[in-house]
Structures are given as C-alpha cells and as structure tokens.
Amino acid sequence: MLVSWNWLSRYLDLPMSHEELALRLSLSGLNHEETTTVDGDVVIDLEVTSNRGDCLGHLGVAREIGVLYDLSVKTPEIELSEAGPKIESLLSVENRYTEACPRYTARVIQGIKVGPSPEWMATALKAVGIGVVNNVVDATNYVMMECGQPLHAFDYAKIAEKKVIVRRAAEKETIEAIDHRNYELDEAMCVIADAKEAQAVAGVMGGAVSEVDDTTTDLVIEAAIFTPLMVRRAARKLKLQSPSSYRFERRVDPVGVDWASRRVCQLILETAGGKLAEGVIDTAPEITPNPPVTLRLSQVERVLGIKIDREEIERILVKLGCEHESGSDTYVPPSWRHDLGREADLIEEVARIHGYENIPEDAPIPVAPSSKRDFDVAMERVRSVMTSAGFSEAMTPSVVTNKLDESLSPWTELPALKTETAMLKGARTLRRSLIPSLLEGRANNWASASIHADLFEIAHIYLPQQSNEALPSEQYSLAMVSGCDYLEIKGAIETLCQRMGIADPVQVKAIERSGFAKGAVVEVSCGERMVGYLGIVDPKVLKSWKLPAPVVAAEFSLPTLLEASSLVPQQQSVSMFPSVERDLNFVVAESVRWSELERVVRAAVGEELAGVRYCETYRDPAKDGKDRKRVLMSVSLQLHDGTLSGEQADQLIGQVIGACKQELAAELLS
C-alpha cells in the first residue's frame, strides 16, 4: 500500500518525521518496505497483512496513526444536493447472485462533462502509482485509495433497457474488458450485466462496452460488496489482478459502501458538474453489526505478562473504533474490522498499540504444565511400531488425480469429491484412501532402484456422504504398503494393537474389494469394531505402476483403533502356578480360517486358557483328502489358584477337541 504524506495530511496533523512514522507503523504491524519521493511528496510503502483490508486506504492508515499518536482524524464531510429526478424512474437493479454479491448500490448522475481532473487529484493519484484518465475515472480511483472501497462508473447511455443485473456468467460467455482484451468466463463467476450482455466482471474489472469516454454525459455509480472467494477465483482464472480485486479479496467495510458512493458523487459533481438523481438503489440496506466481544482484564495481564490500566485499554479500543460502555468488559468492533472476533484479537490490538517494545523481555508469564493428548500418545506408538517393523513414513498430497483415486478405494464406492480448480497439476480429487498414493510412492522408489520401499502414512482421507450437500467425513487413517508376506504384515498389525492396549483379539473376514486380488482381501476387526482392510493388491493395479513383485496393503481408521485402545497399562494378576502346554493337530476344511479355530478354542476353555498359538499349516491331499488341511496349534492352560493337574488338563483339552469337531467338523490327528 503506497501512502502519500501530503494525502495523509488532509486527514490529520503529522507532527512527526516520516522516518519516525514509518518505524512506529512497523512496530504496530504495518511493515515498512521503503520510502520514496515523488514530485516532492514523500511516499511510504507499507506491507498490509491480509486481515487488515481496512488499511488499504489513506483513511484507514490515518486511523492507525491517530490511535498511535492520540491524534484526531478529520474524515471528509459529504454534502450532496439531489437535484435530479428520482432514481427509480431512471434505473432498476436486480441481484440474482447474492452469494457472490451480498450488497449492490447504484446512483445516477446526469449532465456531467468529462474532462481532465483537477491538479490536486491528479498529483495525489500519480504519487501512489495510479494513472490519470479523466475526472470521472480519477474520482473513483481517488475514493478507492482514500477509503479502500472500489467503485465503478458506467456510461448510463450504454446500459440496455436501463437495467442492471447482477448474475452468474453464462458458460463460455465472453467480455471485452477496459484493457480491450477479450476474456472467456464460466458459470462460477459473477458479472454486472444489462438486459443484453455483461458489462463488467464483478469486483475485478469493468467492460469496454460501457466505459466512460469523452462523449459520456450520464453515469451510473456502482458501490458494492463482492465476496472474497468469488473475486479471488475469477481474478486468478482470468489472470486479471487489479487494485479492486486486491481489496475485495481482503474484504471491504460494509458500512463504508454508502459513504464511498456518496463521496465519489460529491467529487464528480465538483469536478464534472451535473445533477445527482434523488435516492439510491440498495439491494441490502440492512447491515448486521459485528457481535460484541468480552475482554477480561485478567486475561490481558496473563497473556502479555504486564499490567495495563483499564483506562488505557478502553482508550486504545475506543480509539480503534470499538463501541464501549464505560466500566463494561464488552466491546463491539467497528464495521471495518472484520478480524476482531475473539478476546485474543482485542488483546493483540492492545499490545501492538501500547507498544511491544514496552513489554519487558523478562516479564514473568505463568506457564501451566501440559500433557499429551491421548491421540498424540497413540500416534507416537503407531509410528514406533511401524518404524520398528521396517516401514518408512511418507507424506503425500491430499488431492490426487482421478485415475489414482479410482485405482483402489476400500472404504466407499461413492464418487470422490472434487475441487473446482486443480490444486496440483491435473489433481482435483480429494482422496478416499491413502493406499494409491503409497503405491505411487513405492513405484517411484522402485524406478529409482530403491526396491524395498515399505511405506506407511498417517493422514486424512475424505469419504463422501450419500447427500451431495453433506460435508465429507474426514477420517484420520493409517495405511501401509509392503513387499513382505501377508502374514508378516498381519503380525505387524497385531503388534500394533497389542502396543495400543487393545484387549480384543484381531479377527479377519474375507470380503471382495476392487483394486485387491480376488480372494486376497479381508476386513479387520477388533472385537465388534471394524477397523480397516488388509489384502494383496491386484496385479493389474501393480502393472499400471510397473511394480513386478506382489504388494500387501492395509488401511485402518485411527479413531476406531483409539476407541478400542487402553493407552495406560492396567494392573493384571499373574498366576504364580506353572502352565501346561498341549499341541493339537486338527484336520479341517480348506475354508476354515485360523481366526475361527482360535475363537472356538477360547470359548471352549474360558478363564483357564493362558494362550493359544498358531504353529503351522500342512496339506497332504493323498492322506487327508482334497480341500483339506492340517493346522497345528499350541494351547497353554493355567490356573490362578493352584497347580493344574493332568486330569484337569485332559478334561479342558477334551472340551477343545469336542467344540472344534462340533462347530468346525475338525478331526484330531492322532
């Protein structure tokens, strides 16, 4: 923001030097870039942060200086004579796109004479780098640089049917802007149109069709509010950054819209003559005030470490424009400060105006001990287990290409959500799974001769809902890909559950999911909770990434795992009596899974079961028959109140054999 010293002098007395002022503004948050001299006028270049759109005009900077130096700001007084006919007889306005344009105002001036601007206006604009055009255009630019509200003047005679329409642009609609270049628009953009065609890209640039020239005699003065996101998107898409779009992207003062409209009419009447039509067309005259914010004095001292008198705090905040009743702790921020919404924001304002240099470096600030959240503790354990198992942590983008997302999606078959514009080249899709990104990372490592790229990632995925209007479910997930054996990865998962204190055994159920090899993917559960998926990636998917070896992939819902976990170890009684181990070799059908055998054994024994361990699987069709297999397990039995006798052990083992035979048709191999 270029600030003219002479221009500032119109609003307040400046008893300090420009060097002192630049330093003081820097200490209060408006960083000083450089100071130059233009035709004898000192011009200070200030860096204005994105939350301080109110300082993108000389009046806003003057308000800051007035607070810092306790000076009175002289805001220009506006006196208008509405000598023309009623505006409703001359113009109508229809707002069809309130999402992009919450408020649109219009005034009409008749009988003006376009000519050169007065010397004082031209000099002021040149000082801040604005080109001089004519007395009408220069007046709109002057008011914009004065208060930060962009304005636009249309040639009234060139507006078809004397009707202004705020609407969406039609797909592939084109407009010739005032830079006399043609631009193709899309439906997300907002245009200011008449009954025939678009006259301006809202908040970005006016059109050449209704441009003010030497033949113009009547004007329509536009002052409006356009939403930052809409303006930013249109400006980036069209590559049309302008002083107007810069200010709309940082928000404008909703109350100041009408002031700016009257101010520019005043300047045009003074420099170009004419008559102002009676009244104004305003599509949203009712303005909601900012909500009140409570500021506790105790919090000021706690945060800043120093005590500031109530009177000084009140002076600072009232001088900044806040409404306040004496003795109250409630402040209503001014309309031009949309960034003041919390107690912390007011404390920051008090600190920067009071002066950060007045806060001692050794000011005692009470520090309360903090503890890690359960989630942080759990994530540390997850990373510890994964790195111990030989995995390397990866970080991949949340937005992926559509092809990558569709290669594998175990959580949902609903179509993924997409951004309006690509966040990365060719990438618009919010990923529904971490696995495709990890496969891409493994493939890139493979191409670089890093063959053993076993990767894991902890990040969000975005699961769409049935309703198109519902927000996606942001699920925090853990995913991994590895070239190891399926059972090794399952073992790593079981170790992870054990380290997180999950008492329920890990169980798997065969399912089918596209992207995984047929018959090689399971749904993983801990007790009654379904926590994720584990399987071998489909060779067709691997081929698309030129990965030659089989890859095992898994993905889990971390919130679900956290629900089942017990991060603080609990005391458990340990039996002081010896255990008895028995090996059992069952012949079962090929379809019987180990998880089923384990479940039956645990149910048959009960509290006396110290553990059951899988040993091996052996197949001999000649002896056992087709589609049959032998599963060897080790069962450990133990009592807590005495030594288990051989007879008791035999009885318990008999229960196991009977239950396995009854429920799974298992035959004990003698």
Automatic annotation (TrEMBL):
<keyword id="KW-0436">Ligase</keyword>
<dbReference type="InterPro" id="IPR005147">
    <property type="entry name" value="tRNA_synthase_B5-dom"/>
</dbReference>
<feature type="binding site">
    <location>
        <position position="339"/>
    </location>
    <ligand>
        <name>Mg(2+)</name>
    </ligand>
</feature>
<protein>
    <recommendedName>
        <fullName>Phenylalanine--tRNA ligase beta subunit</fullName>
        <ecNumber>6.1.1.20</ecNumber>
    </recommendedName>
</protein>
<comment type="subunit">
    <text>Tetramer of two alpha and two beta subunits.</text>
</comment>
<dbReference type="Pfam" id="PF03484">
    <property type="entry name" value="B5"/>
</dbReference>
<keyword id="KW-0067">ATP-binding</keyword>
<keyword id="KW-0648">Protein biosynthesis</keyword>
<keyword id="KW-0963">Cytoplasm</keyword>
<feature type="binding site">
    <location>
        <position position="348"/>
    </location>
    <ligand>
        <name>Mg(2+)</name>
    </ligand>
</feature>
<dbReference type="InterPro" id="IPR041616">
    <property type="entry name" value="PheRS_beta_core"/>
</dbReference>
<comment type="similarity">
    <text>Belongs to the phenylalanyl-tRNA synthetase beta subunit family. Type 1 subfamily.</text>
</comment>
<keyword id="KW-0547">Nucleotide-binding</keyword>
<keyword id="KW-0479">Metal-binding</keyword>
<keyword id="KW-0030">Aminoacyl-tRNA synthetase</keyword>
<dbReference type="InterPro" id="IPR036690">
    <property type="entry name" value="Fdx_antiC-bd_sf"/>
</dbReference>
<dbReference type="InterPro" id="IPR045060">
    <property type="entry name" value="Phe-tRNA-ligase_IIc_bsu"/>
</dbReference>
<dbReference type="InterPro" id="IPR045864">
    <property type="entry name" value="aa-tRNA-synth_II/BPL/LPL"/>
</dbReference>
<dbReference type="InterPro" id="IPR005146">
    <property type="entry name" value="B3/B4_tRNA-bd"/>
</dbReference>
<dbReference type="InterPro" id="IPR004532">
    <property type="entry name" value="Phe-tRNA-ligase_IIc_bsu_bact"/>
</dbReference>
<dbReference type="InterPro" id="IPR005121">
    <property type="entry name" value="Fdx_antiC-bd"/>
</dbReference>
<feature type="domain" description="B5">
    <location>
        <begin position="288"/>
        <end position="361"/>
    </location>
</feature>
<dbReference type="Pfam" id="PF03147">
    <property type="entry name" value="FDX-ACB"/>
</dbReference>
<keyword id="KW-0460">Magnesium</keyword>
<dbReference type="Pfam" id="PF17759">
    <property type="entry name" value="tRNA_synthFbeta"/>
</dbReference>
<feature type="binding site">
    <location>
        <position position="345"/>
    </location>
    <ligand>
        <name>Mg(2+)</name>
    </ligand>
</feature>
<feature type="binding site">
    <location>
        <position position="349"/>
    </location>
    <ligand>
        <name>Mg(2+)</name>
    </ligand>
</feature>
<dbReference type="GO" id="GO:0016874">
    <property type="term" value="F:ligase activity"/>
</dbReference>
<feature type="domain" description="FDX-ACB">
    <location>
        <begin position="575"/>
        <end position="669"/>
    </location>
</feature>
<dbReference type="InterPro" id="IPR009061">
    <property type="entry name" value="DNA-bd_dom_put_sf"/>
</dbReference>
<dbReference type="Pfam" id="PF03483">
    <property type="entry name" value="B3_4"/>
</dbReference>
<dbReference type="InterPro" id="IPR020825">
    <property type="entry name" value="Phe-tRNA_synthase-like_B3/B4"/>
</dbReference>
